[in-house]
């Protein structure tokens, strides 16, 4: 390697050391490609229950060649009826906590995992806007839950921007949660 290549490697090493987990790939890597390949390599199956993201996470993953070995199903459960009838989210829970809540996101992930028998699942619910927000639950509020045999995880976000940007940021965050899980860097709860 040339002197320039050595310097580049040295700087890359320093950057990776400083921001480590925020780097998901290099060169032509996309987050969906990295996640899809991890799923395939580890022989892990995935199912998705998406509401506010409208199937965008599933769409992005289907761009990865060979993903059919891992991606079992994606359910766009946009209505409360779909959440309760397809994913078995209790109607009472939706009434008490609201469709956009930590609890409902977890139940969506559990429901789609039970429905498909996948190793891991994601449940995504939120308010993409421009309407539907309240002071307690503003536009951009999103919950992303992960459910696996060894435990569960749920994260709350408030994403800025127009509807399309909220959906894109939601899909990016969901894929990153999945990436961190696949790398053993996500703290799950029983």
From TrEMBL:
Signal peptide: none
Superkingdom, taxonomy of origin: Bacteria
CinA C-terminal domain segment(s): 29-182
Transmembrane segments: none
InterPro entries: CinA-like_C, CinA_C
One Pfam family from the record: CinA
NCBIfam families reported in the protein's UniProt record: PncC_domain
Protein name: Nicotinamide-nucleotide amidohydrolase family protein
Origin species: Aerophobetes bacterium
Lineage summary: Bacteria, Candidatus Aerophobota
């Amino acid at each position: 390697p040339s002197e320039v290549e050595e310097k580049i490697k040295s700087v890359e090493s320093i950057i990776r050391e400083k921001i480590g987990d925020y780097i998901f790939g290099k060169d032509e890597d996309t987050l969906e490609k990295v996640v899809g390949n991890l799923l395939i390599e580890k022989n892990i199956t995935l199912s998705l229950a998406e509401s506010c993201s409208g199937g965008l996470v599933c769409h992005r993953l289907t761009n990865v060649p060979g993903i059919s070995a891992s991606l079992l199903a994606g359910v766009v459960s946009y209505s409360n009826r779909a959440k309760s009838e397809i994913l078995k989210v209790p109607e009472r829970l939706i009434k008490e906590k609201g469709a956009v809540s930590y609890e409902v996101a977890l139940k969506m992930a559990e429901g789609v995992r039970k429905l498909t028998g996948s190793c891991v699942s994601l449940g995504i619910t939120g308010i993409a806007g421009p309407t539907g927000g309240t002071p307690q639950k503003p536009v951009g509020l999103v919950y992303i839950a992960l459910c696996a045999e060894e435990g569960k995880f749920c994260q709350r976000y408030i994403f800025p921007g127009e509807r399309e940007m909220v959906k894109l940021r939601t899909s990016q965050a969901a894929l990153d949660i999945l990436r961190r899980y696949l790398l053993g860097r996500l703290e799950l709860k029983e």
